Amino acid sequence: MTKYAFIDGGFVDAMVRRTSEYFATDLSLNKIDYRAIAGGHQRTFYYDALPAKKDKESDEDYELRVRKKREQFELVNRTPFMHVREGLTRGQNKTLRQKGVDILLAIDVFKHATSGHMSEAHIMTKDLDFFPLFEALRDTPVAVHLHCYPAETSNELMALADVVVPVNPFKVLQWMHHQSRDSYVEWNISIGDVNPQKLFIVGNCEGLDFYIYQDDGMPFFGRAMAYNPSSLMRSNHWEHIVDDFEARVGKRVYLDQSAKR
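^ thats the sequence. predicted structure below, dont judge the formating
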């Protein structure tokens, strides 16, 4: 089974900013270990372009942003079996630049899918502009895995994928080997030690129930019937339980917000 990965670099950059906001922490000095993204794939292609100059931006500030982007490209290219596919930067129109990168990614995915180079396409993006590509891939024997942030990705795009793999702020901390990665959710708590009773919300993962409990005056507890149902997860934020579970297991949890008890 041959797995190729196609990474929308703009999505990765946006997720780093989103993660900084999510945890209210500065990640500017933390670097991604791109092996964590490329691992498990025979080839990984990373699509991005040098930034276009902003209106009224000084030459010094612009050159700094370009230098940081080039350093990022070097890190990607130094990662085994990972390659930067660089789009063109033209003028000051960011939209035109990004569309050029998107078209390059779409062409490469379809080329490899129809030439028999891969059996699985792992595409990391949340951009609905790829809707035609995902529709076209349905007519090929290639299995399509969409790696995205479900909270910010359209249901239409996710519905076209064979598999949706969550990429959320906990996953980004995992890519960075961040020291706080394991401090938000406590795992492997014996259900016999706490035995929570009050259901807060019920979801679904892999066709089985995913429970969030909160007894009065207690933190939240999570229980996944599809994975080690005899142990619990504990956190002061139920969203952290769901996101950390998705990042670790790589499976999506479907929650009905209206089902809160």
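The chain has nine helices and twelve strands.
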